[in-house]
């Protein structure tokens, strides 16, 4: 990503008047593309006083024209979203870009039809924006979840930027090379906000978040940019045919510090946020600063214009307790790296704001090492981890308030007799926690703190148990065991034709069961009498869980979504008995190479959540949670990246009701 922005502006208290500036860029059509910044030191990697550009090796821009032709190795083509990547000049203000597809394109251009030729460019390059023969609109996305690496760092801004440029040339002889230099000036489509946060309270605090609420106005999400009129349209994106369709609108943007920034009394730090151009003169925006000592709100009521930077000092004087409610939205549990990390828990609110590591933010301590599973019951969240206090984790079994995430109690491994051996899953009902480990399932009395092994449960698979009708259902190969609170034996066992790959409670209180027979089967069972209410064969489709430790499916109503352990999402209509392939998410998210303990479906919206990593080794740090709405013209609703190190699963508090 671009590591900075060339913006010479006047400082003003948000939301005062500022000056817009441009980026210089030169194109030599018969040689390649050369990009030139205006000033700055080559050692800078973020926004400095002169707001200089420093380019990164992964940067890419796009070039197109209404009439010019691109020379290829076979025939000339329209200049439509041709990708250029950095060739030299990383971490410098000047850089040379070359055509990315040098097998197809030579990097040279010719005059097309007679008359004035218009040329356009934008940053960052986006796949799929070349849907039409003569491009007039391009999609842009502004995340409402922005993460700052450290105090005073602006390195994250480049990832949220969108720049555009255009110019016109009088045409030349058709078919001959364009031997002129194209001197572009890039402009910014979005608004840069710079907040100086000062601790004027009586005690040290740590800055966690700055949130801007547009009070109903769209300030982030999907946009389309008309390259001819330079018009930005909110809440729209582009489909595969180049048509403008409905996208996502966000009214709240949250800037999270990657790690809380400690502020001594009187100390300040600077944070950077990007939003869309918005007029707040009639309806002020609300800015909420979140710290370890509480929150304080501010307001701003000016017209924020594209391409400008605005500054505001947020002087913290009176902090009030933060009001949080993690029982709404989604929770993503992460194992973390066993060697040097602990488990973490992220929250995604109904309005799309992601808050990382919410257990740590509530308690100032980390949960256990290699988090595996969680369950919500009676207002509390129960989290089981594999290695407990390793890497300074708080314990193997953690109980917290489900709404605030404040710790109630934590148990270490040596507090259990008999000892647990690498516990992996948990279910809670009737005052008992059912914990699955390498030996089977244990019943833990939450009142007396005593634990007992449930005889006959050896072989219960490493996958979630389900609670329906105050009973716990656990799969063991072909067997479906029924367990009850207060008992240390198996109450009942159902035997399937093949191994079970997943269990979940259905929205109507019954039990979903997937079976990897041939053909695969999806069934619904009545937990009261264990009768099979309905069973559907899936034809040629498979519904395995692979190596994952989560159910092979998730459901919304009678729509059952599954992946067979892959990155391809399928949907089975349990009412009609039909099954369809929806999409492979790698077509939208290139680095989403490995399905990691997915998927989940929001029981209130029907949106599908997928957790992925790029791969093992250091590639686990390249990770995403993506949100999909398959009833929309553009199904990809949101992506969140960077915090999901070895996901253990996606959960929804609403599914535990």
Low-confidence stretches: 1-50
State the strand order across the main sheet. Answer: 1-2-7-6-3-9-12-13
Q: What is the quaternary state of this protein?
A: single chain
Total DSSP helices? 1
Distance between the termini: 42 Å
Instruction: From the alpha carbons, calculate the radius of gyration and give it in angstroms.
Output: 27 Å
Q: Give me the count of strands.
A: 56
Secondary structure class reads mainly beta
The proportion of strand residues reads: over 45%
Main sheet attributes: strand count, strand direction, barrel closure: 8 strands, antiparallel, barrel
What is the residue-averaged pLDDT? 86
Helix content: under 10%
Inertia-based shape: globular
Description:
- The protein is mainly beta and 657 residues long.
- The chain is built from 1 helix and 56 strands.
- The strands form 14 sheets. An 8-stranded antiparallel β-barrel has the order 1-2-7-6-3-9-12-13.
- β54 and β55 (636-641) form a beta hairpin.
- It is globular, with a radius of gyration of 27 Å.
- The two termini are 42 Å apart.
- Mean pLDDT is 86; it is low at 1-50.
